Amino acid sequence: xxxxxxxxxxxxxxxxxxxxxxxxxxxxxxxxxxxxxxxxxxxxxxxxxxxxxxxxxxxxxxxxxxxxxxxxxxxxxxxxxxxxxxxxxxxxxxxxxxxxxxxxxxxxxxxxxxxxxxxxxxxxxxxxxxxxxxxxxxxxxxxxxxxxxxxxxxxxxxxxxxxxxxxxxxxxxxxxxxxxxxxxxxxxxxxxxxxxxxxxxxxxxxxxxxxxxxxxxxxxxxxxxxxxxxxxxxxxxxxxxxxxxxxxxxxxxxxxxxx
Length: 259
Known about the structure:
Blueprint: E1 3-5, H1 18-29, E2 32-37, H2 39-43, H3 62-65, H4 68-73, H5 75-89, H6 96-104, E3 110-115, H7 121-125, E4 130-132, E5 135-142, E6 148-150, E7 169-173, H8 182-194, E8 197-201, H9 212-219, E9 223-228, E10 240-243, H10 246-253
Parallel strand pairs: 1-10, 2-3, 2-8, 3-4, 8-9, 9-10
Antiparallel strand pairs: 5-6, 5-7
């Protein structure tokens, strides 16, 4: 079982903590790394989680709008929701956790960020080797020709947007009931099997198949480090589990390798 670290005073961490130092030592020597991130990273930049009552929009829940069936029924309504989300995210900036992860990347020969987030903040922080497992708010995909395009304009000039081929464009997001892109999950799991260190930040650990990634890595010999304010189903797979906010703990953890 991992040893969970809890600071005596919120927001205060002793850099001499032996378990924190243990994690740092493994990070410092790692040449094959996977970083798995979830909503907890982006929440500290102000990105809404869209869970619970606060996730309601015009009395609709994400479960009612994030489906192909909803899009087929009313593409304008679905796009209005995504335009609202894009408008919320567009002015936001990466936080210290995003930036520390990006600064770590050039120092590791084999490095991959596998994120469940769709906000693009890892790339905005400078991360190059990123897989967006659940898609991106900043891309569209044509329902007819399947071509994927980057789309940064906010607001869009036309709702719902159309593809040059004439087909309807949808957000390039993995919707409820849809599988993750096969290439993305295969690449992430391949990297996890080869990893020396896996850093899991801000993910609830309940969405599969992504939640199986740290467990697979641990069984293949990786050293798994979790950063999360609360215990999660992934805690048991971690050798070190750090309790606190990502924007505080990730830079502290990566201090020696992200300069």
